[in-house]
UniProtKB/TrEMBL annotation:
This is POLO box domain-containing protein. GO terms for cellular component: nucleus. It comes from Graphocephala atropunctata. GO terms for molecular function: ATP binding; protein serine/threonine kinase activity. PROSITE patterns: POLO_BOX (PS50078). The lineage of its organism: Eukaryota, Metazoa, Ecdysozoa, Arthropoda, Hexapoda. Pfam families: POLO_box. InterPro entries: POLO_box_1 (IPR033701), POLO_box_2 (IPR033695), POLO_box_dom (IPR000959), POLO_box_dom_sf (IPR036947). Keywords: ATP-binding, Kinase, Nucleotide-binding, Repeat, Serine/threonine-protein kinase, Transferase. Residues 1-75, 98-180 form the POLO box domain.
Amino acid sequence: WMDYSNSYGFAYTLSNSDFGIIFNDETRMLLQRKDQYIHYVHNDGTDIICQKRSIPLALNKKLKILMHCGKYMSESLLRAHEGNAPQVAADGDNPSVEVFKWMRGETEMIMMLTNGSVQVNFSSDHTKLILCGCTKTVTVIESAAYMKTLKLDNLRNCGASVQLKRKLSVVLKYVNIFLSK
């Protein structure tokens, strides 16, 4: 992800190589790399899905920004955990998963995805937590060598480390903030 909010918005790349941006005007655009479709969501929630080559003229500037950000991220950012990253899961009714809300905390970057997952990146130690409501799991990524997915029921019944409990409470705090908006 890249925080371009001083100029464009918040850009991100998903584990399936799709990339998108939430523009400062609260619209968002995603490029599905596999089939080159663009999904554009207006700030009123209405959306357009079209092939990249047939995008409406009014969206050309935003498409150029999206492509610039996508190129920069693919060339400059480390592809941490490639091959081991949890894949974004789409449901049958909504094949494109994208970030639809984001927030920067004191030392965290929080992203809510359209499939109900929440990812929190902790800049202090580069840990990532991915909370998935549909599978009732949390995936903990601490380094390129360590990734573990835990069932929330097991955590409730068996407990968790102090550090994980602290991080989960941060995740819960931000989920509540997202839900209250």
